[in-house]
Amino acid sequence: MGLFKPLDNLEIGASYFFRRSEVIQGNIANVDTPNYRPKDLIFERELERALPLKKTDSRHIDPREPSSRFKVVNSPDYSGYDSNKVNLDKELAKLAESNLMIRAINEALRKEIGKLKLVIQGR
């Protein structure tokens, strides 16, 4: 494991949640657009790389299924009066979750950088 591997993993998480916040903000901006379908961002491929999974039973889903780093998908679970599928409450909750995760990642980055400073200073 490299010295900067924790920072690399935190960078991937931060990139995901920043990008996801942008996608959710786009959904909120289109709350009154007729026939708009909300989108969300997933990153199963990166999660699998960070946490290697094995298929130990034939009934398990194969974790090595190909996908891109982050993938934008449509969310078809809600339909408003004008066939707009944006549920504002759900989108705001997802945005709050993303913001909370960004804050947690920032705190983890701060701690990792503090550890590196201690190593550099020889303490």
Structural domain count = 1
Determine the fraction of residues in helical runs and give it as a percent range. 40-55%
**How many E strands?**
2
- The poorly predicted ranges are none
Shape: flat
This entry's quaternary arrangement is single chain
Quick take:
Helix 1 (5-29) packs antiparallel against helix 3.
Explain this structure:
- With 123 residues, this protein is mainly alpha-helical.
- It has one domain (5-121).
- The protein has 3 helices and 2 strands, in the order H-E-H-E-H.
- A two-stranded antiparallel sheet has the order 1-2.
- Helix 1 (5-29) packs antiparallel against helix 3 (88-121).
- The longest helix is centred in the C-terminal third of the chain and has 34 residues, at 88-121.
- The protein is flat and about 65 Å long.
Topology:
Layout: H1 5-29, E1 39-42, H2 44-50, E2 71-74, H3 88-121
Antiparallel strand pairs: 1-2
Q: Which properties best describe this structure?
A:
flat, mainly alpha, single chain
